[in-house]
Amino acid sequence: MSKLTLDDLRKLREEKTQEFSRRNNEQDKSSIIIGMGTCGIAAGAKETLNAFIEALDTNGLTNVKVKQTGCMGSCNVEPTVEVVIPGMPTVVYGNVDGTVAKKIVLKHIIGKELLDDHIQDKPAMDIIEN
Question: Model's pTM, two decimal places?
Answer without folding.
Answer: 0.75
